[in-house]
Specification:
Blueprint lengths: L2 H28 L7 H8 L1 E6 L7 E2 L5 E2 L1 H13 L2 E6 L5 H6 L5 E3 L12 E3 L4 E10 L8 H6 L4 E5 L3 H10 L3 E5 L2 H10 L4 E5 L2 H8 L4 E4 L6 E4 L2 E3 L3 H17 L1 H10 L4 H4 L2
Length: about 280
Amino acid sequence: MNSLGVVRRLMLLIVVVGFFQIPSITLASTATDPSEGSLALIRKNGVLKVGVAVNAPWVFRDSNGQWSGLEIDLLRQFAQDMGWKLDLVPATWQSAIENLRAHRFDILASGLSITPQRALLLKFSHPYGDYALGLVVNKQAIGADDVTKLQAGSSHRIGVLSGTVTAATTKDYFGQSKIVEIQDETQAIKDVRDGKLDGLMAEEPVPTALEKTYPDQLRKLDVQTYGRTAHGFAVRRNDGDLLDVVNAWLIYQQASGWLRSREDFWIHHPDWVQLTQ
């Protein structure tokens, strides 16, 4: 075989080899790495990290300093059902959403109201409940029919959990009165009883439970027309696979009746108030 034939054969071999190699290189570059995403890491490490911000009775520390509440019950059962260890990471309402987006935890749980504005930053689970707004006041400070006075403007001090949808609504209706944004709702309950705050705006069941627990000191004023919000868990926007698992679990436990039993305990009975003292 002359040298020209050898060169032609080598060139043909290079072309054939290249033909078979190029698709494999292209496929490798576009394939999704199965190790990416929070769900893959949770399954690999066996740990579910959840950011929790205080918002009783959904999330709070009891008198022994232990995390308690409706969402804590749900999270513990969810982690148990999935065979994962639960790691609760303390957060604040001011930083919780940004901390989630910064990968400091996998899920945010804080009695979080679902809103379209927040959905620009997060993905929400199916709602597990919806709750009306309520106002509980110190009997000595505010009368039973003083809602109109608060709307018109007064010197009364109304507390509300900072950074929440409830805080924004309170400012809309009572913006002419003195709105005190609080960080610790448990302390605010004590302050309303002691007269340091004249009232506390919060989602039900908080106002009803406080009125039943301290009938000689507190009364509830009807502000249900101010609004109602749905609560859910939140994940990062690129964690749709994790959200699918959370939603499937919520559907499963709603159908089983277990979720309803926990909501009955935390939402429809005032016993949880004593756990915060």
